[in-house]
């Protein structure tokens, strides 16, 4: 399961991802609300209507579709968070299927909570959020629980995409004192490390234990954790030839021996990850 680096845990403000239990959207939608400043965020989601519209857009990106009859025309009921189908007349709540379902808290406050959760690298504190939003501590705890649940559900379906750095590493690094003839990595667990390079920022990361250092061990990891649409995927790895296994899935890879001194510059995100193992 892909996880995010702590250093880069600015969970992108993609309502499509974090607030709705919908099929996994394409990566491009993650970028939509990424790195909004607080003033930009407040401008964008200044009212209940603006927030409701954002949920509506995430739920029905191509316009309303009645869940009862499949008709594609409906009207929002005045003052309500529901759409009435123009054909069958049944009502559908915009918030159903989202973390906001059944909430009595204003969407504006929910959105702000998500903003602070996304911005706070150390994980938002319920106590701090409670005073920032003016909401009871117990209520904030419930909101955070829902958000974290939605975020972890979403991460289970995420796959690496874009520019991916790939290598193997040993958990705990090399032994400081090695006996002659003994590998410095003896008894260490070997892991495959795949990390997205987003313009020299680390994106999502996959760490998986490998039974051995072979093409056969790497193949299922790539199959499970990398986006299968190969048109825009590109890998970079060091000289290990079994890294070229990614080409069997149709991905492109640049494999070249990299001198140790140039590792940080050539595979910056991998170096960062491995230095934390
Ligand atoms: Zn209908």
Summarize the entry for a quick read.
By secondary structure, the protein is of the alpha+beta class.
Bound molecules: zinc ion
What's the number of structural domains?
2
Number of strands: 9
Mean pLDDT comes to: 75
Strand percentage lies at 15-25%
Helix content estimate: 25-40%
Count of helical stretches = 10
Q: What is the gyration radius calculated from CA atoms?
A: 23 Å
| SSE string, helices as H and strands as E | EHHHHEEEHHHEEEHEEHH
Question: How many angstroms separate the termini?
Answer: 17 Å
- Bulk shape: elongated
* Unreliable spans: 1-32
- Can you list the strand order of the major beta sheet? 1-7-6-5-8-9
Largest sheet features: 6 strands, mixed
Content-based structural category: alpha+beta
Q: What would the keywords be for this entry?
A:
2 domains, Nucleotidyltransferase, domain 5, three-stranded antiparallel β-sheet, six-stranded mixed β-sheet, alpha+beta, disordered N terminus, 277 residues, 9 strands
Describe the structure.
The chain has 277 residues and is α+β, with helices and mostly antiparallel strands. It has two domains: 9-157, no CATH class; 163-275, Ribonuclease H-like superfamily/Ribonuclease H (Nucleotidyltransferase, domain 5, 2-Layer Sandwich). It is built from ten helices and nine strands. It has helices spanning 15-18, 27-30, 38-44, 48-59, 107-119, 126-133, 137-157, 215-225, 263-266, 268-275, and strands at residues 3-4, 74-76, 82-85, 91-93, 163-170, 190-198, 201-209, 234-237, 252-255. It has a six-stranded mixed beta sheet with strand order 1-7-6-5-8-9. A three-stranded antiparallel beta sheet has the order 2-3-4, with no helix packed on it. The longest helix is centred in the middle third of the chain and has 21 residues, at 137-157. Residues 1-32 have low confidence and may be disordered. It binds zinc ion. Residues 66, 68-69, 71, 85, 87-88, 90 line the site of zinc ion.
